[in-house]
């Protein structure tokens, strides 16, 4: 039987209770959800985002609680590539959407979901983010579930105390850094010991604020393996200026940045040891463990003198997809429709600091994120460069090497060569 959790006539009392609480941003704790009937088919949900596992575990319990339709099995540990290779992928996936996931889409391994009404509800500006990666012609292979927006975290109290305005241009950013430095305040907390923090923060923000990331990669793919000096675009030519500015900004970091890891950086920022921190909402929960009352705001990293160039970094934090080889595609569609019900989906985003992907999704209410909402509404955003480069190219390590003193021209030439080598193999 097909079920829609949005239809109150088809939702059991248990599930209606969940939806009411979920709309308020809390989870209903259930116990004794037995579904031992052998007549129920299993549908496997693969969801591996670590911090969201407990939340989805409860969603699965609620889905199973009314005892009809398929029984959802929550898989958090399988090898995704191995499952596809063996012809035994999960029935439904719900995970971060990036270049690594897009390769399954490009090869036609994901089924067409265009007939699901929830697919049509996705805002065009969000769907465009999916289409920036290689797609399979004529298919809607994934449905975005949650958007994560990230920009500079800043300590509002320190900005107020030192009469520093939120910068909107590159020169204003440097002036702000100089003011803090003169006052004995570290302008920027950086954590070079963890390579991913450099690529997702300093590098992604600098590159996304200094060039059109989507256009760059679209043209790069069209060029194939031609990244020579006469090519229209290349890492060496297009990345040089924004990464030069990144290194100029990085000089305002804490003196121990090279030995500081992500956890220590959260602690330092929570203690008020720096005015700015280039991390997204994923850091807020850790910061709050030290100081839940720290007054934090956000602003896009300005990389030009034009305020119209301000953009926030986004990624499709979670997206739903059903493989062509799914063992239970009908059950997967039913589970997907349940998860995509606005009452369920919006509650997840509110609880996990995500932004909605539908035009009618409610805005964020967390005061630490509200300054990014207008940029998300207008589509003034970009996907991070770090999500568009295959993992076989060690982009994180290259960016870490730059802030630790590696030669910029040499690193960018290596990137050109790495990309060209992969293009030739394709």
Automatic annotation (TrEMBL):
Entry protein name: Carbohydrate ABC transporter substrate-binding protein
Name of a matching Pfam family = SBP_bac_1
Q: Output the InterPro entries linked to this UniProt entry.
A: Bact_solute-bd_prot1 (IPR050490), SBP (IPR006059), TAT_signal (IPR006311)
């Amino acid at each position: 039987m097909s079920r829609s959790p949005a239809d109150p006539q088809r939702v059991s009392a248990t599930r209606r209770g969940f939806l009411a609480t979920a709309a308020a941003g809390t989870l209903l704790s259930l116990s004794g959800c037995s579904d031992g009937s052998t007549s129920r088919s299993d549908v496997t949900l693969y969801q591996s985002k670590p911090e969201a596992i407990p939340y989805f575990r409860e969603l699965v319990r609620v889905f199973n609680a009314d005892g009809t339709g398929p029984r959802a099995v929550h898989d958090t540990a399988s090898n995704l590539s191995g499952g596809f290779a063996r012809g035994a992928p999960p029935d439904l996936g719900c995970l971060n959407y990036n270049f690594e996931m897009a390769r399954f889409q490009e090869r036609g391994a994901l089924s067409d979901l265009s007939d699901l009404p929830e697919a049509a509800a996705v805002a065009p500006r969000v769907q465009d983010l999916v289409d920036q990666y290689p797609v399979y012609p004529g298919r809607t292979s994934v449905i975005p579930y949650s958007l994560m927006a990230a920009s500079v975290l800043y300590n509002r109290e320190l900005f107020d105390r030192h009469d520093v305005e939120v910068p909107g241009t590159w020169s204003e950013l440097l002036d702000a850094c100089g003011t803090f430095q003169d006052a004995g305040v570290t302008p920027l907390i950086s954590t070079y010991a963890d390579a991913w923090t450099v690529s997702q923060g300093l590098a992604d923000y600098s590159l996304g604020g200094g060039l059109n990331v989507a256009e760059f990669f679209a043209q790069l793919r069209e060029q194939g393996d031609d990244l020579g000096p006469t090519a229209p675009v290349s890492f060496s030519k297009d990345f040089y200026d924004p990464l030069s500015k990144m290194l100029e900004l990085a000089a305002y970091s804490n003196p121990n940045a090279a030995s500081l890891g992500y956890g220590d950086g959260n602690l330092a920022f929570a203690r008020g040891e720096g005015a700015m921190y280039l991390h997204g909402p994923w850091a807020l929960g850790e910061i709050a463990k030290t100081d839940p009352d720290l007054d934090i705001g956000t602003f896009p990293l300005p990389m030009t003198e034009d305020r119209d160039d301000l953009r926030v970094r986004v990624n499709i934090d979670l997206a739903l997809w059903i493989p062509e080889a799914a063992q239970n595609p009908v059950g997967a569609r039913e589970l997907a429709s349940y998860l995509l019900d606005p009452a369920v989906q919006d509650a997840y985003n509110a609880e996990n600091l995500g932004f909605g992907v539908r035009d009618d999704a409610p805005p964020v209410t967390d005061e630490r994120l509200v300054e990014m909402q207008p940029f998300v509404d207008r589509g003034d955003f970009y996907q991070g460069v770090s999500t568009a480069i295959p993992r076989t190219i060690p982009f994180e390590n290259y960016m870490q090497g730059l802030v630790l003193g590696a030669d910029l021209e040499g690193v960018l030439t290596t990137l050109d060569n790495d990309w060209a080598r992969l293009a030739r193999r394709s």
